[in-house]
Amino acid sequence: MVGALVVALGGCSTTVAGTASVDPAATTTTSRPPAPANLNAAITVWGTEPDNPLVPGNTTDPGGQQIIDALFTGLVEQEPGTNEIKPAHAQSWEVGADGKRLTIKLKPGWRFHDGTPVTAKNYVDAWNFTAAAANGQQGAGYFEQIAGYPEVRAPGSAVREMAGLKVVDDSTFTVDLAQPSATFVKLLGDPLFSPLPDAFFKDRASFELKPVGNGPFQFVSRVPGSEVVLARFEQYSGPKPKVRQVRFRFGAGQEAGYASLMTNEVDFIGEIPPSKLAGGRYKTELRGRSASADRLANQTLVFPLYDPKFANPDLRRAISMAIDRKKITETVFAGDRKPLKGYGAPGLPGWTDGACAEYCEYNPTKAKELFQRSGFAGPIELISNAQSGHKEWVEAVCNQIRNTLGADCVFKPVEIRELLEKKNAKQHTAIFRSGWQADYPDVQNFLTPIYRTGAPFNDGRYTNPAVDQKLAAAEAAHGTNPSEAYRLYREAEQLIAADMPVIPLWNNATPHGWSTRLRKVRVTPVLGLDLMAVEVE
């Protein structure tokens, strides 16, 4: 979701808004009142092809998330800029006195794109389907807090429904959590928690060819390897978008997308290619039509600790200390990203950078000493997809490791699908690229789902009982004593940094650009264009 593990870049959620640094030329004023928006306009967005059919619970890549976010509306959303939770399809939600039962009531009159009503049962059925191990959905881990989740996840389990989900009537359902949670409601804005129509369960194959959602846009067509087209859903019960049609185009990478943007064949590109970052070249070429959005997201390298060759913490610390984060962010990213010394992201409530102060500091002498002490013979391999600008920085990291440690370092590019599949199956045999995008703005979301033993996104199978104890204590304090919770999260983060199961690199503030046709441009955290805000003159 992403939050999800952001590997294309994670993650998963498209509701947590960041701040943007806008090219000053984009803020020029005029004495003339703006022309009315062209409500009949069609726009083209450059993206990446979704890895899977467009089913919410199985869509965790940014390319697919952007489209799912347009096709579906969930229970809640977060206000851009403030990140305050507000109702979307939910009319209300009430947390019981024990902090474990959530009663959700839906707004009346909402319908799927096929005309059928959206009921409480559609949510319960969708969540149960996503969680059940037999269905192989990538987003299953998001439901782990619900009572009965372990039973539906057990290998070979015939259980298909979580005990914690109950339909009360067409507009009401209850969610029982295994433990009290101060953050579960914030998760509900993630598209993974979207409802599914009855048509999905009657004929899944047909649904995957023509998805049916309940969001502001409905599916029109998909040409594999080329595009997905959506159109405004005129019967949508929420606020209406101001564009009639959106075409998501896929192609040969960011360079091709940028070239199409320069000719107005494409209206939006979520990531400026590295070749245009140096010297701020894109700001000159797109004068007045670019911005850099700060997102609650980070970039990391993960050690597959299920492979014995990575068991020695000295090896992991050495590789981290061999990386000059500052130099890479200044050269490859032209200063648009900032080095990290911790496992959160700048602007994250409850988090300050520095938990990994020693082992995230570039120190060639200490790195070489630790590496020699580890006895690792090499080679050091880094796995990532090459698209979306990753090739340039992974190669730069590999060069630094090679030069600092005197060991061979090899970049092994793979397709994003292979990267994700091996991550989910715990089959990587080399250090692999990853990252995290906030599901909601809280340090808890950057630690517990990733570093707790057995957590759903603990992709390297890291375990430390002391970390588990700190995280559990922080969770217990979160609802009543946030300052104490944040202190405990900080202590847990320091323990994680000492173990170095994952190497923090930098945050993900990424420039984007748009055509001369657009106005009111802002981005979602997965670098998608905010389709509810954008207008065409």
TrEMBL record:
Pfam families: SBP_bac_5. It comes from the Bacteria. GO terms for molecular function: peptide transmembrane transporter activity. SUPFAM superfamilies: Periplasmic binding protein-like II (SSF53850). Transmembrane segments: none annotated. Keywords: Signal. One of its GO terms (biological process) is peptide transport. Gene3D superfamilies: Dipeptide-binding Protein, Domain 1, Dipeptide-binding Protein, Domain 3, Periplasmic binding protein-like II. InterPro entries: Peptide/Ni-bd, SBP_5, SBP_5_dom. Residues 84-454 form the Solute-binding protein family domain. Residues 1-19 form the signal peptide. GO terms for cellular component: ATP-binding cassette (ABC) transporter complex; periplasmic space. This is Oligopeptide transport system substrate-binding protein. It comes from Herbihabitans rhizosphaerae.
